[in-house]
């Protein structure tokens, strides 16, 4: 079959990447979707089961830092657009192994940009999926795309550094890049090291939700389907050389999040018994408020309410208690101090949905 477009997704086996790949494969049978991913500890091949036999989907197992491989892809495939998501993403691990984060997140981006820029078939879009964390924390200021970057942990510092590389290809060569900076994205299939699946996994094992520190930390949570819609809209309507915040007004204190998830399972009077406060990580940002007028002007709006998004997410973890069982104990291999692995067997969650 002749395809009208070829899209390369890096990190397409991860949480957001797998939702993006599934959406592209389903919505665009006439587009060829390539997924370049080295299957790091945080992903499961099951995330892409629904598309793996589809004619318009090709998986390339490999490292985005491998310049021979990446150059080969661009020399042999007519890649029209790139969504670059491959990254090391766990903030806590980034304190333990900053160089591995630098290698994948910065060097990997450099390799990909260079190969894409030199490709015979020049891509029309290079979309770099970055994060609100590049702004650093704020207690009162709401960040827009012109706010300065003040990353405060090794993960966000490498994402900011990669952004500078991406921007330099626009500034110097007018290579058609777009950068997205999104709030926390949540939903089905997220690996258990991130906050919502971590709380759900602990509760599944009748363990307490562990809350780091006593500071009033909160996060803005955007449901994954809404994030994917934003990325696809930017592919079609985004202006090259621009940065787009992808945000939500749904801000939830982490303690409240834990309470909400616990409440689904136990009477209100017992909720506090299921919370445990543990020492904080070295440096934690309190909140990342962003405004995303530029994206709203293109016609995007978050459509999934928190109530609906968390309902779908909890239901998915309830229906798939064994999904992460192969990798549940996996931690970033570069890190010395892994979090304690939750022991099997998994007991079903009994949440009221
Ligand atoms: N999850 C969020 O809340 C959030 C918010 C804003 C931005 N982002 C960004 O979105 C992107 C995806 O995040 P996610 O939550 O899906 O993370 P994830 O950890 O679930 O997925 C990352 C993917 O990258 C792959 N990968 C890692 N190193 C690689 C390498 N060297 N070569 C090829 N593939 C490699 C992994 O195997 C995995 O499939 C990241 O760039 C992240 O910075 C995430």
From TrEMBL:
- Spell out the molecular function terms from Gene Ontology: dTDP-glucose 4,6-dehydratase activity
Q: Which SUPFAM superfamilies match?
A: NAD(P)-binding Rossmann-fold domains
EC number(s) on file: 4.2.1.46
According to the entry, every stretch annotated as the NAD(P)-binding domain falls at: 8-313
InterPro entries from the UniProt entry = dTDP_Gluc_deHydtase (IPR005888), NAD(P)-bd_dom (IPR016040), NAD(P)-bd_dom_sf (IPR036291)
Could you tell me what reaction this enzyme catalyses?
Answer: dTDP-alpha-D-glucose = dTDP-4-dehydro-6-deoxy-alpha-D-glucose + H2O
Cofactor(s) annotated in UniProt: NAD(+)
Enzyme category, top tier: lyase
Q: Which PANTHER family does the entry mention?
A: DTDP-D-GLUCOSE 4,6-DEHYDRATASE-RELATED (PTHR43000)
- Similarity comment: Belongs to the NAD(P)-dependent epimerase/dehydratase family. dTDP-glucose dehydratase subfamily.
| Protein name, as recorded | dTDP-D-glucose 4,6-dehydratase
Origin species, per record, is: Takifugu rubripes
Tell me the classification of the organism that encodes this protein: Eukaryota, Metazoa, Chordata, Craniata, Vertebrata
